[in-house]
Model the fold of this input.
Amino acid sequence: MEDSGKALEKFGDLSLVASDDGSRFFSATHDEIRRGDVSDVYFLKTLHVLEAAGLAGTLVEADIHASDDGIFAGAEEAKRLLAGYGVRMRSLKEGDGMSAGETVMQLKGPYSKFCLHETALLGMLASSSGWATAARACVEAAGKNIPVACFASRHLHPAVAPVMERAALIGGCDTASNILGASLAGRDPRGTMPHSFILIVGDTLEASRLYLEHLKEAGPLVSLVDTLNDEALEAVRQAVELGPELYGVRLDTPKERGGVTPELVREVRARLDQAGAPAVKIFVSGGVNPDKIPELAAAGTDAFGVGSYISDANPIDMTLDLKSIAGRPVAKRGRIPGPAVNERLVEVL
Done:
């Protein structure tokens, strides 16, 4: 169904929402998000009744608070969602730490202007903050001098993978592999090479030579050395044959072979040093998480690629409460009436 361009306003507008036509993906388009199609239906019911009763323009203030400690992210998308609606927005800065129960964002404006967007707004903040928090945990485990790259897009629906990679960058990752995600964050996408490339070529060294021949402008060569042969011996072979053209080797040993262990990293480092290649870096990916990172770093890892630990992060639940109606402090049971005071909030919109 083509986008009608009309925002949902009353319950009968459900007929404007797309149904399955056998060809579209099941993710929402940007227009559908902005129109309110992804809202929980009870917000549309609420808007319908308030409009009919002449109450939709009531001036309100709302607090959004986090359910857990973490790293705050998603404010930029929230800003873009509500831009032009006459809603004032204050929030923490993206990348700031947040505490459980802390008010991370406040909204002020006519309730009708953001009622239908509460679902999307909270989802944007919850998911991005969860991913940013997981990324920060990896970055902190690695320490200041060891970069962490986000390799997590394959574990998520493609419609949201770029959002996740941006959140990982906010959380502190140095690079991201998703082309669109990195580009939207103002970065160049970074990656090494897949096993499929080496399998098709049939030899890791020949694959590295082809990379150097055809992709020099794509960045330094990091050769994936676990595909066909012993990792340590393949690393030495690459270093001896390619010399200074080899920037690094990547270890991504599958779990069927025991995964990448500190012992393996230590052996690869020792054999490279013995072969006169102390400058060759060791990049580790595959099952990396904050618990494994310190030992792998101590064994000689120079950089990490993290996938499912970031993509699998639980969203940090966000809750929106009305705290003021027409200037009068209010709250539902169990909450304190009136907007919370948080001096860390800055004007966003």
In short: The first strand starts at residue 59 and ends at 66. Residues 5 and 35 are 7 Å apart (CA to CA). The radius of gyration is 25 Å. The chain has a mean pLDDT of 96.
